[in-house]
Amino acid sequence: MKKREKLAIVRQHYPTAITTIDSVNRLIDFVEAKLDLEPAQIMLADSICSDDVNSIQYPARAHEFLGPFKMGGLDGYPFTGLTGMGAFASHVPDEGAVIVYYGPHIGISKNGAVGEIHRIGQHNHSGCCGAAKGALNKLLTNTIEDGKITELDYQMNTIEQILLKERNRIATASIPLKEATEVIYEAIDKRINELVAATKYNCKYVILMGAILINSDSDVGSFNCSRRFDVIDLATGQRTSYL
Question: Residues in domain Limiting CO2-inducible protein B/C beta carbonyic anhydrase (predicted)?
Answer without folding.
Answer: 19-233
